[in-house]
Amino acid sequence: MAVPKVAKNTRLPFQKTWTQKASTQKRIFLLLAVTPPFLGYLLFSLYPNILSVYYALLNWNGISEPVFVGFDNFVKMLHDQFVWRALYHNFLLLVAVVPLTIIISLFLAYLITYMPFRENAFLKVLFFFPNVLSTVVIALLWAFIYDGNYGLLNSLLRMFGINLDTFWLGQESTALWALVLPFVWGGVGLYVIIFSNAMLSIPKSLYESAILDGAGHMTLLFKITIPLLRPIIYVGVLFVSLGTIKGFETVLILTNGGPAGSTDVLGLYMFNLAFGETVHNYGYASAVGMLLFIILTGTKLIMDKFFPNSGVEY
């Protein structure tokens, strides 16, 4: 009876050793690459957020002995008229900033992608330029534009015979709405680039077929471009919404919540509670921060529930 032969391992010892060594080096490299940002996330993001939950249960000014008050800060917040006023201002900014940013970005992206402009590359750089500027520079620029005496806006109005001499940031009736343009101007450029790059991924054959059927630019935009870009638009709406709700740096520099609290927003109210000139209430500020976190999380969940983000297949 013949005994079956067993195939011998023809791999040389040095080949196995080299493979194991390469695998070990890869793991070490990945560990070295991931560890620093992970530690940074734990130290500068996760730990402060967990600590703020604990602070929200205290009455503490940062100097004296902290006093545990349980959920008193949250109960106080529900009856705080300044919190509700700030939320109302956040809502008004959200209603104005998000549609304007997305609509203007889509329109400009469509123009520079499908219109035969020779300066398309320059226009992309021009639109993106505000995103390379710091918030302080943008705020100071708009402070100059809105200046009542020498501002660019009033100067342009005078050229058309309109002598308003309005201090746009100094009047309760105009201050909040004057903040809309800095928010929109600072965000449009980024989404122009994102939307235009997404439009380039749409097959040209779809547009060519529609044009042969007599479709114009508006039909192409609303029947082909926007439906196919729905997932990208969803992300844009989400990010602009979250940025508008939690952003307060521009408001801090331009108005600091004034005049008479007419531009106060939730993030700025939280900041002033913790680091204001006369008030240092870290416990209550942390509770307001928890409310802001809940609103941001709720916004994301609501958009996932009621706004479909699946694109149209082609």
Automatic annotation (TrEMBL):
<keyword id="KW-0813">Transport</keyword>
<dbReference type="GO" id="GO:0055085">
    <property type="term" value="P:transmembrane transport"/>
</dbReference>
<dbReference type="InterPro" id="IPR000515">
    <property type="entry name" value="MetI-like"/>
</dbReference>
<keyword id="KW-1003">Cell membrane</keyword>
<dbReference type="GO" id="GO:0005886">
    <property type="term" value="C:plasma membrane"/>
</dbReference>
<dbReference type="InterPro" id="IPR051393">
    <property type="entry name" value="ABC_transporter_permease"/>
</dbReference>
<dbReference type="InterPro" id="IPR035906">
    <property type="entry name" value="MetI-like_sf"/>
</dbReference>
<dbReference type="Pfam" id="PF00528">
    <property type="entry name" value="BPD_transp_1"/>
</dbReference>
<protein>
    <submittedName>
        <fullName>Carbohydrate ABC transporter membrane protein 1 (CUT1 family)</fullName>
    </submittedName>
</protein>
<feature type="transmembrane region" description="Helical">
    <location>
        <begin position="91"/>
        <end position="113"/>
    </location>
</feature>
<keyword id="KW-1133">Transmembrane helix</keyword>
<feature type="transmembrane region" description="Helical">
    <location>
        <begin position="28"/>
        <end position="47"/>
    </location>
</feature>
<feature type="transmembrane region" description="Helical">
    <location>
        <begin position="125"/>
        <end position="145"/>
    </location>
</feature>
<keyword id="KW-0472">Membrane</keyword>
<feature type="transmembrane region" description="Helical">
    <location>
        <begin position="175"/>
        <end position="200"/>
    </location>
</feature>
<comment type="similarity">
    <text>Belongs to the binding-protein-dependent transport system permease family.</text>
</comment>
<feature type="transmembrane region" description="Helical">
    <location>
        <begin position="282"/>
        <end position="303"/>
    </location>
</feature>
<feature type="domain" description="ABC transmembrane type-1">
    <location>
        <begin position="87"/>
        <end position="303"/>
    </location>
</feature>
<keyword id="KW-0812">Transmembrane</keyword>
